[in-house]
Amino acid sequence: MVDNLNKGDKVVTNGGIFGTIVKVGDDRITLEIASKVQINIERQQVSRMDKKSGVNKDDEEDDSKGEKSGKKGIKNAEELKKLALNNNKSITRNYGH
Questions:
Q1: Model pTM?
Q2: CA angle at 12 for the pair 11 and 17, rounded to the nearest 5°
């Protein structure tokens, strides 16, 4: 499988990083793991092809169910930061550190 990797393939590395191949070399490939974020890895570190490419209909249904049930998703980095800080405070209170 590693010998058949091509530009545009969506893959998962042995370390669990998801990305899209943007460049293929003899020993290394370049993965785009976020917008304008690229990493170089050895070809042998590709674990598998990513089965999920794009938005799946089932995902859209799951999202709409979450909205109906009142569940909220994290919208941006600032919300994630606040959530992490709040969780850290509660852990500190519980363990006395």
A1: 0.53
A2: 125
